[in-house]
Amino acid sequence: MHSFFFTLFDSFVNWLIPDDMEFQSGDMPNYTTSDGSVKIQKDSEVRLKIIGTRVDATEIFCIGTTKDDFLGVINDPTTT
């Protein structure tokens, strides 16, 4: 299993997040389902599908989506 670290940006990734999730700003920015049952936040382990990459001299960038079967949160840090 490979680990990646990424930052969520509300306006940039909104279309890559499932429709039933909404961005919540504050001390701990996150995406949360309307019923509160699923939350993506810092230290969440998320299974996603990489749909694009870009490499420059010092960094690798990728865009991924959780809008597909079997993707999304696999470990919520608030429940461990």
TrEMBL record:
InterPro entries linked to this entry: NA-bd_OB-fold
Top-rank taxon, per record: Eukaryota
Protein's name in the database: S1 motif domain-containing protein
